[in-house]
Prior knowledge:
Rossmann fold; coiled coil; single chain; Spore Coat Polysaccharide Biosynthesis Protein SpsA, Chain A; six-stranded parallel sheet; 41% helix; 15 helices; alpha/beta
Amino acid sequence: MRTRPAAPKSAGAEGEAEAGSFSPLAAQALRAALRHLQGRLQAQEAQLDLHRRELDTQAAELAGRQTALADRQAEVARLNEELAQREAEIAGLRHAAALAAARQPFARRVLRRLARDLRRLLRHVAPAPAAVTPAPAPAAMPTEPPPPPSQQAAPAPVQDYRTRMRALRASGQLAAVRTVAVVAPADWGGTASAVAGLLQALSLQCTVHAAMPADFTDDLYLVLSPRDFVVLPPAERRILWRVPDEQEGAGDTDPSWTRLQESLAVFEAVLPRIADLLAHGLVQHQIFHVPLPPTNAALAAALEDRTPFGLPHLLARALHGCGLLDDAAFETATASTRLDGEAVVLCLPEAPDRFAHARESLRHGAVLFPGLRHVDGWKGTALSYRDLARRALRAGRDRLLVWEDDARLPTDFDTRLPALLAQLDAHPERWDLFSGLLTDLSPKARVLDVQPYGSELLIRLDSVIGMVFGLYGPRALRALADYRFEGEDVMKNTIDRYLEALGLRCCTLFPPLVGHDDHLASTLWAPNGVRFASNASMNAMIDRSQVRLLSKVADFLDGGPAPQAPQRQ
């Protein structure tokens, strides 16, 4: 490995050690830094251009709204003028009515005289008619008028799904589920029975119903094709499973969307329809992709599918994400799931844009693997890495290559990665993990060694942060497999902060091997419970991390002091 450059032998030899001279390694570091900074500037210029276009669009929208506002103001002025005319007409009518009221006594006297004369005349012309008893009026049906709108109950506001699920988890209701009723229309009866068999293998007592039960006495109801049922079980005890041939709602006001939103969870059998659920107001935390075969003929093959995207694995994953299965039960249920491929792209099929990007990132023999879910995204991420590490260790692997579905791979990735792996495999004793992008390097991190690697720098540190791209060796895999939740502090207990505190030996490249796609949204952080934060919001943090890394490399090359290694609390 490259050691620190030696000091000049003679301080007075100005020709040999001029102030502007650089060692070959320092010059290479400077060139690498310049290339990286140039790339970041180009990326930021592109981002600024995007923001300019967005501002132009918003300015055009604002101009249109200002024009519409001017039109509305002109309409208001016209209506005010018309109102003034109507008020003048009303004043004229009131004046006429006052004159008529003044003439009323004379008119009454004339009418009374005419009526008296008319009665006299009628007595001489026609006899008085016989008395007629009026028929009783039919009894009016008692009616209760609807209350005025001000007294009508307003629809209950939609509660943050995360708040609702945290309360249900804390109450113990989900973990206590033991009986499950699978309700499905008759044409889905075979599938319902097969699903019940999978649930029974998870130690759940199941019954199958072709009609909705009259009384809801079971702990949980799994309803296939919910649009076929007028009445549904209580919202906090039902999961609605949309089947392949189920029709969409008529629009945003269709009551079926509200029934979905109110449910404990929604299982979606058809992957492309997840975008429609999100567009109609359902939150990603509530949606789980669980496939169902469209025909009974394909059911047997679906039940035997042991890939990560097979029915058995995704059903167990969804129940675990809802809090109905604990970690041990999930691991037992999915023990036969195969971990194929030389590398894994960790993804969420419930995040349409990121999942599409993940499919485009299948390089170097990588396979997609659906991450585990939790109402708190950072916990789902931690569970996903722990699950992958345990599977790799059980399979006898000594390393695991994982990148996330928002990693931006370079165009020459297929040639660079094999060469890098060969370099790392040649010295396995020098590293525990490789990070393709250090996203938030600690100020306490120490650079242990720097060596040239082509036109880049291969850097060894005693700290790591960021899970966008990682190669995990035996020690790192064991650390991931041993992860436990120890609190709610995201500055200590996220999976990357956990690894950072262990003082593992980390290798990385400068400039970074991979990037972080700006156009995608995070699946970890959703401040308002609905909309996830954009990846672009993390650019400043990542840029600071790379500048800090470069500064530490410069300190190492200068032989400056290094801070102490961090210790896990």
